[in-house]
Amino acid sequence: MNRSIDMMRYLLTRVVEDFGGKPYFIFKIDGYGGTQLDKRVRYHFELLYDAGYIMVLNTNSEGYQCKITDSGYKFYEIIKDKKVYAEAKKMCKQKGEFNIGMLRLTIKYLRKKQQTEVSNETT
Asked: What is the pTM of this model?
């Protein structure tokens, strides 16, 4: 199965925006019944787990019982802006390296560039 950083971003965004601040949550994807989680969704949840962004406490017919890790919140802060994410994704693909590490670096670069542009406009 192919890894999709877009799917990982979607899942992490849903987790943080829908359940952030709660000690744990049961996560389901719209359109997927609570008893049959799609293999692709499960695979990407496992990738988020492997990356250390979520901690899976339990899985059952209701869904995934999870909590967000500190690393998960930090990564969310990097990827939450759709415009910046789209531009970073485009730049990474042009370089031929669309992975989480490259995405982080590219987004940090774009944010720093935006701050510099704003700073130059005000002086």
From this structure: 0.71
